[in-house]
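just leaving the lab so this will be short. below you get a single protein, a line of residues and a line of whole numbers that encode the local backbone shape. id like you to explain what the token line says about the fold, in plain words if possible. thanks a lot i owe you, the record is right below:

…
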Amino acid sequence: MVKKKTRDSTLDEPLLEFEERDEGRPGDRDTVHIHHYQAPPTQPLMDLIPFGRFHILMLLMCGLGWMQDNYWGRVIGDISKTVVEEKFKMDGKWDGIPATVQFTGMALGSFFWGWASDFFGRKIAFISTLFIAGIFGMGMAFAPNFIVFLVTLFFVGFGAGGNLAVDGAIFSEFLPSKQRGPMLVLLSTFWSFGSIIASTQDYFLLPYYDTDRDPDRNSGWRLAIAIPATISVFIGVFRLIYIESPMYLLRKNRVTEATNNLNMISRWNGTPQEFDGAILEMYVPSENAKGFNFGAIFADKKLVFATLLCWSFWFTTNVAYTGFNLFLPELLKKKFQLEDREAYLDNLIYNIAGLPASLLGAWLVETILGRKWSMTVSCTLTAACFLVFNYVGGWTSSKIVIVVIISAINFFAQIMYAAYYTYTPEIFPTSVRSSGMGVAALMGKAASIGTPFPIHYLMDYYSIAYVLWIDFGFMAAGALAMALLPIETRGRQLKS
């Protein structure tokens, strides 16, 4: 093999020209294959393969996992009152405990699976999360008592909680740099879609299986759990075809496997490139690539500051959003005296409003606003909508106005989430990308752990206005943290 520098007329950066000569029999003309690759670091690894069918498959694979995260959260929020008060005959002050147990499992799962993905490999974590959530979800659907219900719910959370940490990091590592921003935002639409599916099934199931008629024979809440559990198992089976991330393999100095996987991606996309180890050797990081080093996050002062701000707004915005989103049907019933069916319908419309927001976010993060200002502006508008909603009951009882305002809250919140789901995995080096994302998800779930009890207590024994002021304060704090971020990742290469 002969290696030399050349320049291609269609590119401004130097390329490497690799000439491979297949020697035949004496007297025969040799067959020569010439491949051109732009030299790193000017061209990121995954830019060597154009966007294609494989990336769409990865979007579906990762997106279905993100869908499960929000699906489970919405379902548990909707059935908590039924399970606690009607089925297991407990005091209403414990209505928040199922959500707290679920978010505890999610918090621990997000950190554990993020760490496992960096330490043991992406594949084992990517597949395990869905199987664990599905298997324990089936057990929860048939729980004979409250203790079994809570134990199985914890492990559902532990499995499902790994999806945000692992899937976003994995997907970002497969994407060409130009498509990374929009595709990561499109990934977040699946998260919104999860709440839409959950709200739709709950609208058709829960009001028609009223436990006040016959609590012992009620099956609505069990069906509401069994459906996402079954879906989780099927997604886990689908993920068995996943191949390990070439970026992760190169970080571990497993060049041969990375080469094979890169060639497999190329064939999936129908592109003619054929890579060899000599090309990929140049992409192996110069530092020690064989160890897990969480300290890489703290190697640069600007990255430290960005990381701490990032983790802080994951915490504050999730306090605010969980405080409003989790018990929205109950909040609507108490604030506006709505019937069950009306509240679940409004909740469904509220969740549908988040879907176009995620699509809009896919465009915004690539505009002059970038990731940073897209999430800062949308977070500020979400906080403002909380204030408006707080005073709606005082000056109007119009159903249309109520639906418009709650839809606006979710619309702006989903733009915010789309932007920071894109931003977060992009700021971390490959060696700790899943772990960094895992800690961020941990902060979000930790916020959700502490939210259900006080929010439900304030709703039951004090004023809903207190809940909305808390939501406003934490969301505004998140907007401030976003505005102070020192790093914008639009157009920036992923760090190895």
Q: What stands out?
A: The chain is about 70% helix and 5% strand. Confidence is low (pLDDT under 50) at residues 1-21, 32-41. The longest strand covers residues 15-22.
